[in-house]
Structures are given as C-alpha cells and as structure tokens.
Model the fold of this input.
Amino acid sequence: MDQQTKQEFVRRFGNTDGAFILTRAPGRVNLIGEHTDYNDGFVFPIAIDRYTTILAKARTDTQVRIFSTTQNELTEFSIAGPVAKDSPQWSLYAKGVAEALRQRGLVKNGIDAMVSSTVPIGGGLSSSASFEVATGLAFLTANGKTLDKIELALAAQWAEHNYASMPCGIMDQFISALGEKDHAMLLDCRDLSQRQISMEDADMRIFIANSNVKHKLVEGEYQARRNQCERAVAILRKKFPAVKALRDADLSMLKTCRMDMDPTVFRRARHVISENTRTLQFAEAMASGNWSACGKLMYASHESLRDDYGVSCPELDFLVEIADTVQGVYGARMTGGGFGGSMVAMIQSHAIKELTAVIAQKYPQRFALEATMFSTTAGDGAQVVSS
Ligand code: ADP
Ligand code: MG
Done:
C-alpha cells in the first residue's frame, strides 16, 4: 500500500494510533460447472489476480467507519450490539460480515477502514464476495483473532444472504477465501469438500471478456430454471428414489423418464447432469495438463448452456464464436448465470493479443458495444498482507 493512501487514511479518519492493517481478497471466475451449484453438483473456479483491498486500523471502541473509494462514500455503524441493516446498500456486505463475526464472539472492537477494488464492480467476477472476505479479515486482525478460512467463507456467505439479501451459493466466498496460486478448485457443492488442481503453465492464461450486457428478466429466469430442476428431480424420484438432487442422476436414468417429462424440463435436466460430468472430466484433464481436452469441454459446456439450459445470449454466443476462430485458443464458454456477463477462455499466452484485437474489431461492429477484456492466472486467496 503506497504512502499516499496511508496519508489519505490519516487525513480522513484522524487516526494515527497503532499499526496499519492491510488485507486483500480476490475476485473469481468459474472455469466450468455452471448452474450446477444449486443442484448439489460441482463447480471449478479460480481466484483471479484482481482484489478488494482494505487498509484499516483497530479502534478502542465499538464504532466502525468504512470509506469505499469505489463508491466514494463513508459508512458508520456500531458493533456494540446487533448491527443495524441500514443503507447505503453497499455497506450491508461489511455490516453482515461484522455481525457474523460479532455473533461468534470474535469481534468486539471496531475499525477505521478504507476499501478499494480492482475487481470490476457488478461484472460477474464477484467483487461482493471479495469485499466480504477482505472485510472479515480486517475485523479479525484488528481484534487479534484468526478464523479457519472455511468458517470465514461461511460467515461471508451468511452476510450476503442475511444483510445484502442475495441468496448466493458458496462458490464465490469459498474460492476468494481458499484459492491457491496456480490452482483451480474443484468444489463439491453438496458437502463442500474441495480439491486444488494445479494448472501451472507459463504459456497458458485465462482470458476474460465482459460482454457489457445485462439482459432483463434475469431473476425470473433464474427462478424458473430452479423450479424446472426441482420438477425433474420429482419425476426422476418416482423411478429412482435415491435421487435427491440432479447430481444423483445420470443421463441413462434421465432418458428412462423422458416420456414423463415436459421437453423443456428434460433439456434443463440434461444440461445439469451433463455439466456435472463435464466438470469432473475437466478436473481430470487439467490434472494431466491436457489443455486441449479442457478446451473441448468448455465449448461443450457453452453449447449445453445455450441450447439445453437457455441462458446464453447473442452477445456471449458471438464472443465464443470469435474465440473459436483464433489460433491458440483451447476453449471458451459463457461464465456466470448468463443473459450477459462474461466469456472465459483458456488460451496460449502468445494468442492473447490477437484474440483481444479480433474481439475489439468485430464485437462493436455487431452489437454497437465494447467488450472489456483482460487475462489472468490463478492467484492466491485472501490474505493479511501486513498488520
Ligand atoms: P459482483 O459480485 O459480480 O461484482 P454483485 O452485484 O454481487 O456483483 O456485487 C456488487 C456490489 O457489491 C456493489 O454494488 C456494492 O454494493 C458491493 N461492493 C463490491 N465491491 C465494493 C467496494 N469496493 N466498495 C463498496 N461496495 C462494494
Ligand atoms: Mg456478487
């Protein structure tokens, strides 16, 4: 953290006591395993080299002051008792984390803090989870406490559910807290067990292109997909009582129920079941460094999300189509919930320049929109940088 930011901190808070605490937590991108989390399935994210950073100092009382440079706004609250769920909206992520840690008896003293971020806000790369996790670490450090990273992730998710009113899965907080450099994380959303798989290769990068579109109806469509998955499970269960979630079914079981199912419900279930299989195959391919096999699975995932699950959009389809024309791209797919958001690709580093140029040229021609692009490798999860 540069001297200038520390000077600004002192100017803003007038707090010159004690040591500075610096924490950071990364955003993430999911390489494969989309719409599988709420079906008890597998996801496979990496932490990216973009972070929410918090510069803080402990206070001797129970007041909290947080200034967000991205929002250009100060929020103030007390942790003497249950933390109030007051506006502004962005402060709820921090308030929820403070409350989760207060309830665990880990946090008694407040902090003064400045938060900044290199994760695009609202860009589908999980600035919210990185904000929660970095905030949690700052509170813990200021109170001389540590917490198991899994517990920290669960506290952050609790904050997002109960304070920010976002009923998210656990992937974002898990990878932000537990990511490992040069590794992707195969996470089982049923029992939260995880396996870190090496993807170290000096010539391979993860490339992200944000379509910069967000189509309407996203929330309604999301709920509709969840309902269709539940419907499929209810039908499967009549023949296969052991099926508690789509994670427990395979394609042959699904086929024997085809006649009993609405064709749309059948296709939705086929995506989830095949995506779980692809995610496990992807993990194996990655473990053996077979990037071409990984890439093929990414294209297959995109087609399944587009045709069976119906959550892509013309902008994302076009980005994937363009990626497929560039030499050195192993594979590409939409990532995140869909109807906009980003494309993720696995790419040889020498090809980044060309892919960037081709997208910059062709995407605006088709959609009168620019895509935001960058490349990354798998980075470390949250850490206390200094205290
Ligand atoms: P994503 O997680 O994909 O970036 P979300 O809508 O889940 O998008 O979270 C974005 C919200 O998180 C922002 O609107 C803001 O309320 C909060 N947030 C994230 N980063 C910061 C930050 N550095 N300062 C203040 N609020 C932030
Ligand atoms: Mg988020």
About this structure: The first helix runs from residue 3 to 13. The radius of gyration is 22 Å. The pocket of adenosine-5'-diphosphate (ligand 1) is lined by residues 52, 68, 70-71, 89-90, 93, 115, 117, 121-128, 131 (CB under 6 Å).
